[in-house]
Amino acid sequence: MVLEIKNLTLSVLTEYGYIDVVEGLSFNIDEGEIYGLVGESGCGKTVTALSVLRLLSKSFRVKSGSILFCGENIFSLPEKDLGRIRGREISIVFQEPMTSLNPVIKIGEQIEEMFIVHLGMERKMAKQKSIEVLEEVGFGNPERTFHQYPHQLSGGQRQRVLIAMAISLGPKLIICDEPTTALDVASEREVLDILLNLVERRRVSMLFITHNLHIVERLCHRIGIMYLGRLVEEQKKESFFSNPLHPYSQGLLSSALMKGEKLRPIRGNVPELRNIPEGCKFHPRCDLVMDICRTKEPKVVGKERESWVRCFLYGS
Residue 249: inside a domain, yes or no? Predict the structure, then answer.
């Protein structure tokens, strides 16, 4: 097992005091597996991703739980060991490449710096390795790309550069946080194909964060549905798309225009942190709400199987 998150609860300091933004979160990712973490904005997906690398700001605190990477507890590691893991064993690809790439430094210099700093490689060898990873992510003329600046590339090409940087040191886990959101359909397809090929060829594991179920259907092996800091359902991809269990999952699917079905958006919006409802957090937006949902939080049903759900409709 490459990544195992156990009962993780994270809080953030606000003007109203500490408020939980992730609560009792548990999931794992095996070698060569793509795990899709899905939910609307504000549900805690990016916070979860940043916690894996211990990159959260000082306003956050870990109330409970652990994150194990290849058996090591991330929260117990000293800073020098974190430096070894970040980039080299766990890498991350963010949504907007222009915030991750330095606009005044050539692409190749930004990639080869990783080989030099992390592996102590000489610059000549670092350049060769940089050109190789640029070729691996689909650049037909990688040496030309090596000498270009970020502004000379399209959005899809810049995202491919970030993927090249993410795989350059041979990590065991890549975290992708909405990496195709700003891309057109053709560029999105290219990026997804590259990620799929990388997983198959390198046996790398991936945590893929998104709100786009079309991408999940194409890319992921297992899916965790997140709402207001909690996982409410987990299934294999095939069973999720044929039989979503939680009303929130059903709402996400009906809002996504899957396979030509009529669009039925989820009513309401994700509540603000200071207005999190009691009971089941989704009940104010749920069309199947029952009285018990308003006062009690449902427990997990079906944990012993490959599919589970947190909902009173299933007898919890």
Answer: yes
